[in-house]
Amino acid sequence: MSKTILEVENLTTSFKTERGLLKAVDGVSFRVDAGEILGLVGESGCGKSVTSQSIMRLYDEKYLAVYEGSVRFEGRELFSLNEKEMQSIRGKDIAMVFQDALSSLNPVFTVGEQIMEALSIHQGLRKDAAREKAIEMLRLVGIPSPEKRCDAYPHELSGGMRQRVMIAIALCCQPKLLIADEPTTALDVTIQAQIMDLIVELNEKLHMGVILITHDLSVIAETCQRVAVMYLGQIVEEAEVTELFDAPRHPYTQGLLQSIPGSGKTKEERLFVIEGTVPLLSQIPEGCRFSPRCPHATDRCRRIAPPLFAGENGHNARCWLCNRL
Q: What is the DSSP string of 87-155?
């Protein structure tokens, strides 16, 4: 049985605004085991990236964000650590691949220098040893001529290569948990497949836990063992991947799956579209948060927020309809 390395319980992240505190993440709970890939899926604005960055405490806690709940990494409560202690974990034990490599990489430093910085801080390597390790990491992530690319600046590389550099930086200290936030955004289909194959390969080789954030359900189906579906700051359904695809319980999950272009659809058949859009944080509806867009919503749904109902085989869903299953 795999060891649980990350336990998130009732995580709430609120941002300080002129309108008061706005909850971008509200009561999120999940776990990640060593060697497991957990998928986190949902529309833009549902809180996926805020959840991942809250785990690493990347938001300014003095002026911007308020964290509540519990995030335990290998049994250690991250919210009780001071900033210096958190810095020793970020990049070393927990690493993150951000979705926009060009804006995440520093344009005035070579990619080799940016990998070497992490090695110097967390492993204490001297310049020559750090450079050798940086070249080794570039070779590991499949970048050709790594000795030459080590001295290149981010703008001199293609989008796919920059994303691979981000993965190299994240993996150079062999983290126990990798958070990949839309790692294939803005890349062409071939490069997307290569990046995802690389993450899966390194996940198996290093036996690290992975949180994969994506909009693409086909990527979830091919790479993840479990999946959590988020809507407006909450997890609305979670299950093993095959269970979720075979028998989705929440209307939101059902809508996401129906909107996937399929081979069974005719040319004349229009793609399914979930009506409406994700509301602003200042306009969260009463009751079930999905009720304004749900074709099955009742008065009860609009008045009372449902809990996350536990189902068989860990298949949980936040819907009053599921309470009757």
A: HHHBTTTEEEE-S-HHHHS-TTS-HHHHHHHHHHHHH---HHHHHHHHHHHHHHTT-SSHHHHTT--GG
